[in-house]
Specification:
Length: 547
């Protein structure tokens, strides 16, 4: 059987309705396509940020499983499947055309970037953002070359500051029809996340959000995580689906339409379910009803080791949002409060549903912790085994943060070097010293380190850092500068161990400086290829200064 081509279109930053107040509204063309496509009104993304959301797009695994922090984000394709690798097993050629530099640089482990020979003369791989019209032109250049059949085409646009965005997508769809590709393809039109409604008082990506201290990617109300989702395939029945669904369901849906399976199992299965039964089955089977009526859909702001984490849980018409530090809790009934204005978590009549979400939240977090801890420990065992030729009798383990990461380090150390003497430096207030993990370990309070003038040098120092360029790490790093070892290692979330030969060049200030310099270099490259960028930046900065 001939495999269908796939054309997956993402428009960055589009909420699932029209407010009439900004350029983040659902596009007119998305309403028009409902006459030919199936439309899902309650499609929720895994996170309100592009990279986290896309990671879930491509894997069907919630993004918080896939990385500990943004700065060390890298996909582990040995442990998890992604759409790129699945389709390659079935002979697909994959082409990703993404307008944002961050997407092209951080998501290239999930997808194959389109060959540079198809780029237009107006864009370069180093540009921060390609014009939307050039994304379409690059796609047309690719199609003109008669790419291998079947192919997977992934196109990423951005609605910000482009009043022609709807027409761009309209023209794209029409061109697909003109090329006689439409009727024999699977086509998806969606967004990576929405955007906070202006009614919340946050009106842009700019200074108002920064002043409020609330970046858009940490808000989990449905204006920010409920996205348009349109699906076309040969034989589709156009119409609206109101079931609560997730972007976890996209890959299982594609696999169902293509009649393919996972070539073999990896560490985690696909989380979602095919959406096709919601369209093709009438009436729905008990199994389908049971899954879609009783599932809980989760969205997260921030990766698992980052500060200020917030989680959203949705079941039917109830939406629960909680901070991981326990400082706030929200509950909305979207059937009567679609704008999610009235927090009803504290009302006595909602105690049962709040307790349900609390229990689910706790159990799910414990499950995630077990999986991540085991995965990190196994990888650390491999990393430490590579150091077995050097015998270490004693070491410091500095826990700069109190996630599970330092526990994985200790377990791996004990396994690899059973006789090593371990001195753990940690915030004692944050741990239970009776835990078995601390047996035969000397524990020193982080606060006490500040009072010690002469600290004995050990053979090994291991720095355990949740996020190496976080503000928290920069704030406390200097407190431990007197702790020295003959060999200094820094552990990453993914179990990788870095040997710090020159500690000066790996301080958090230097790491932050390197990251900032990379941004500056990229902006200079952008300015060379897109001179109007400098004018826009100058205007933006001037407004901030004079304001």
């Amino acid at each position: 059987m001939k495999k269908k081509n796939i054309i997956w279109i993402v428009v960055d930053c589009v909420r699932n309705y029209q407010s009439g107040t900004d350029d983040r509204d659902k596009l007119d063309i998305m309403y028009e396509l409902e006459s030919e496509f199936a439309s899902f009104d309650n499609m929720m993304v895994s996170a309100p940020s592009s990279i986290m959301s896309a990671a879930n797009f491509f894997t069907s695994i919630p993004s918080y499983y896939l990385a500990g922090n943004y700065s060390q984000f890298k996909f582990d394709n040995e442990s998890y499947w992604c759409i790129n690798d699945i389709l390659k097993e079935y002979g697909y050629k994959n082409h990703a055309i993404m307008n944002a530099y961050d997407c092209r640089s951080m998501l290239n482990d999930f997808v194959d970037l389109v060959d540079d020979k198809f780029l237009t003369k107006n864009v370069r791989p180093t540009m921060m953002r390609w014009p939307n019209k050039d994304v379409t032109k690059i796609f047309n250049n690719l199609l003109d070359s008669e790419p291998q059949d079947p192919s997977f085409h992934f196109l990423w646009y951005n609605t910000r500051l482009d009043p022609n965005m709807s027409n761009e997508i309209k023209g794209l769809i029409q061109d697909i029809k003109n090329r006689e590709l439409f009727d024999d393809s699977v086509i998806i039109v969606t967004a990576d996340h929405g955007y906070p409604d202006r009614e919340r008082g946050l009106v842009s990506d700019g200074w108002d959000l920064l002043k409020a201290g609330i970046p858009h990617d940490i808000l989990l109300t449905n204006d920010n995580i409920n996205v348009p989702f349109l699906l076309y395939y040969p034989g589709v029945k156009p119409g609206k689906v109101n079931n609560l669904v997730s972007t976890e369901d996209i890959i299982p849906t594609l696999m169902d339409l293509l009649d393919i399976k996972l070539p073999f199992e990896k560490k985690l299965p696909l989380f979602g379910k095919s959406l096709i039964p919601l369209l093709d089955k009438d009436p729905l089977s008990d199994e389908v009803l049971e899954f879609f009526d009783n599932r809980v859909i989760r969205s997260d702001a921030r990766f698992s080791l980052q500060k200020d984490r917030i989680t959203s849980l949705q079941k039917n018409n109830f939406h629960y949002i909680a901070k991981h530090d326990g400082s706030s809790e929200e509950l909305y009934d979207t059937s009567i409060d679609p704008k999610e204005v009235n927090n009803i978590a504290s009302k006595s009549e909602n105690e049962k549903i709040v307790n349900f979400f609390r229990g689910y939240f706790k159990e799910e977090n414990q499950k995630i912790l077990r999986i991540q801890k085991l995965n990190t420990t196994n990888k650390l065992n491999i990393s430490f085994n590579n150091l077995k030729n050097t015998k270490f009798n004693n070491c410091y383990v500095i826990a700069f943060n109190q996630s599970y990461l330092y526990q994985s380090v200790i377990e791996s150390l004990k396994t690899t070097f059973p006789d090593i003497e371990i001195t753990l430096i940690i915030d004692i207030n944050e741990i239970n010293q009776k835990d078995s993990i601390f047996e035969n370990i000397t524990i020193v309070s982080s606060e006490k380190i500040l009072d010690l003038k002469n600290i004995k040098k050990k053979e090994l120092v291991i720095e355990v850092v949740d996020d190496p360029i976080s503000n928290n790490f920069r704030d406390i790093y200097q407190n431990f500068r007197n702790i020295k070892g003959h060999k200094v290692l820094r552990v990453e979330w993914n179990g990788k161990i870095n040997i710090l030969k020159y500690k000066l060049f790996n301080t958090p200030k230097i790491l932050k400086l390197k990251a900032d310099l990379r941004k500056i270099v990229n902006k200079i490259k952008l300015g060379i290829n897109e001179p109007t960028y400098f004018i826009n930046e100058l205007t933006r900065v001037s407004k901030k200064i004079f304001k």
